[in-house]
Amino acid sequence: MSNHHVVVVGGGFAGIQLVQKLRKVNVQITLIDRRNHHLFQPLLYQVATTILATSEIAWPIRRLFAASRNVKTLLGEVVSVDRSEKSVRLKTGHAVTYNTLVVATGARHAYFGQDDWESFAPGLKTLEDATTIRRRLLLAFEQAELESDEERQRALLTFCIIGAGPTGVELAGIIAELAHRTLQREFRTIDTRSAKIILIEAGTRPLATFAPELSQYTEAALNKLGVEVRTGDPVTQCDGNGVVVAGEIIPCRTIIWAAGVKASDAAIWLSADADRAGRVIVEPDLTVKGDADIFVVGDTALVLDADGKPVPGIAPAAKQQGAYVADVIRRRLHGRPKAPPFAYKHLGNLATIGPGAAVVDFGWVKLRGSAAWWVWGTAHIFFLIGVRNRFAVALSWLWVSLRRQHSARLITQKETLKDA
User: Fold this and answer.
1) With 0-12 CB in 10 A as exposed, 13-18 as middle and 19+ as buried, what is 291?
2) Is 170 a catalytic residue?
3) Non-local CB neighbours of 332 within 8 Å, separated by 6+ positions
């Protein structure tokens, strides 16, 4: 086996795609991640809203590459990179040397300078985030059932989602479905149909990256589900009592953040130039300026498309970047001509709103309603890893569609009563 050592930091879409493309190449690969699983983030909100179980959208990384003898997996957190020594250092103190380094460490939610809001309004990037939100959602109904004060009960039954991108829209639609249909016969003191779901967007419309007509359909569909959509004003205050929008205090006990993200600390490790969101500014071949042996991909990188606009932080873009870097590395190892600059191919935008309602924007064709919902569902099932997971997710969706019952409504954390 070749002594050339490729170290990949991050087991997200970009990192996994790169390793899959290189696993049959004569090279040694070490994949490092803080967690032992690869996560299908596009369906993470369905774990948060009790439709899917965690095991249906996550897979152990070691299992994915068990048959690839040249792939080594390490569970660890990278804290620094020594470019002169060509090594990465883990939080445990261990150092891993490399010939080629690929950083694909993703992003976390950003609070635009209001980091103290995070404890009141968790974002949604990890399984831990999803189970935290799920716990808060379910506990809100349980606490409302016990509450005798009507004002506090109304606050418990008010749910605010900040940010009306795809994640915010999808969360709002399913929470409305959960409150207004799934739970309506299960409580005796409260009427869950009285729950208020508010989607707050600082911009002028939901799904701003979609065509305007699809945004209009989305808002109408959300209204039909019982979601109140507020646009044009940002949240100016967020705490344990609720949020403030346009000077109005909205009492609520459950707040979810879906308004923005920031890159990991990779730019700091690499001493590389970065934009305001912390994304590393990369060269056309996705390398760091001044170091051809370090690539940065996915949400960690600022990559520009042919029009000079940032490539969106979505799964297809990350997978394309991972595949591209794998090709660059193969060309170098085999002495082949240099690869052309990375060119992003936009495959379209998709978002689901609720049962039988979704929007799809391929540019050349736009779909809405049930047809879009089928396209959205088919696309997501196709990109899941493994036949078992595809069947499990399809069965869960079928059960929800036919019975209006969510199958993952369990409050299992040790802190179950802590939030109360």
Assistant:
1) middle
2) yes
3) none
CA distances, 353 to each of 150, 249, 282, 350 (Å): 30, 27, 35, 10
> In terms of DSSP H, where are the helices of 238-314?
266-270
Distance CA 215, CA 209 (A): 9
Q: What is the pLDDT of residues 132-141, one digit of tens each?
A: 999 999 999 9
Among 301, 382, 256, residue whose Cα is nearest residue 104: 301
Number of H helices, E strands in the chain: 11, 25
Q: What are the C-alpha distances in Å from 214 to residues 169, 291, 345, 371?
A: 12, 43, 22, 13
Q: How far apart are alpha carbons 238 and 386 in whole angstroms? A: 41
Which strands, in side-by-side order, build the sheet including 196-201? 227-231, 196-201, 158-162, 254-257
What is the per-residue pLDDT across 97-136, written as a single tens digit (0 to 9) for each? 999 999 999 998 889 889 999 999 999 999 999 999 999 9
Q: Which residue has the tokens 């109304």?
A: 154
Q: Looking at 77, 85, 151, 170, which residue is catalytic?
A: 170
Q: Estimate to the nearest angstrom the gap between the alpha carbon of 120 and the chain centroid.
A: 19
Task: Give residue 391's identity as a one-letter amino acid code.
Answer: F
- Distance between CA atoms of 207 and 167, rounded to whole angstroms? 9
CA–CA gap between residue 207 and residue 166 (Å, rounded): 6
How many angstroms separate the CA atoms of 81 and 105, rounded?
A: 13
End-to-end CA distance of the chain: 57
